[in-house]
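Postdoc handover notes: sequence design on the structure in folder B. Input tokens:
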């Protein structure tokens, strides 16, 4: 299986005039072609920081971040970012929102426009291409946001809690949609979430992070579930076992952090 991302002994320290804070410490992980890699961890542990390192927005203090064997660079087309909210521009039509990234990168060619329209058609949004965001449901807007990312044809998608703004019922349906789209397009993705059930339902593998400075605490292989859709996974008897395994890893991390604070005090 081809490696799409590599983080090799990565550390990141933030510096201010008064002090410095280590956010990431000696973190190593890999992601593979066509894999949906989930990342969960305690609040504030550095999950979004990892996405910023993978995208090249941040550079590591030490270590190396590679995307398709190239150094992570925010100017490249290797990664595509999908944020917590759809961030569609209200004054642009759905098609023009999808084309926004191409305009910014000066790649808006007739071929790319045709590709954008074909994606909208493939995922049942073509009839809405001349609508505006406020005319679409929350779930439809998230699909548009994903297509806006896909049209740039990145090698790796970075999903930063993209469903957190949706209500629970809509969220279940959108997870199903996004999973279907990513698998249909054969895309590799890193999916950050605080929702354990969501990670199990969607991912091929889950990395559990420690408290800050974050490092890899545990790795959960979900490949036995790969033949099942997110909703079907939630119905499986083994689902609760995976949940408990991740939950225990997170609790163990919390207990060790508490012990550390007591020792320091």
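Designed sequence:
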């Amino acid at each position: 299986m081809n490696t799409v991302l590599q983080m090799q002994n990565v550390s990141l320290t933030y510096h201010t005039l008064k002090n410095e804070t280590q956010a990431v410490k000696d973190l190593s992980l890999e992601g593979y072609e066509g894999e949906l890699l989930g990342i969960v961890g305690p609040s504030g542990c550095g999950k979004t920081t990892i996405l910023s390192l993978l995208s090249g927005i941040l550079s590591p203090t030490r270590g190396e971040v590679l995307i398709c064997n190239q150094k992570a660079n925010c100017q490249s087309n290797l990664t595509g970012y999908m944020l917590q909210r759809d961030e569609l521009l209200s004054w642009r039509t759905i098609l023009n929102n999808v084309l926004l990234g191409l305009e910014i990168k000066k790649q808006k060619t007739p071929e790319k426009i045709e590709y954008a329209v074909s994606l909208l058609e493939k995922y049942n949004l073509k009839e809405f291409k001349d609508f505006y965001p406020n005319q679409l449901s929350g779930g439809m807007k998230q699909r548009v946001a994903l297509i806006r990312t896909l049209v740039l044809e990145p090698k790796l998608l970075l999903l930063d809690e993209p469903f957190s703004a949706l209500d629970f019922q809509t969220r279940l349906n959108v997870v199903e949609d996004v999973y279907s789209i990513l698998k249909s397009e054969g895309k590799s993705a890193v999916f950050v979430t605080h929702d354990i059930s969501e990670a199990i339902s969607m991912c091929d593998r889950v990395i559990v992070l420690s408290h800050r400075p974050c490092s890899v605490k545990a790795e959960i292989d979900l490949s036995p579930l790969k033949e099942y859709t997110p909703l079907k996974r939630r119905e499986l008897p083994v689902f609760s076992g995976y949940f408990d395994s991740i939950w225990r890893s997170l609790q163990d991390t919390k207990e060790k952090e508490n012990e550390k604070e007591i020792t320091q005090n």
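Context for whoever picks this up: The first strand starts at residue 3 and ends at 15. Don't rerun without checking with the PI first.
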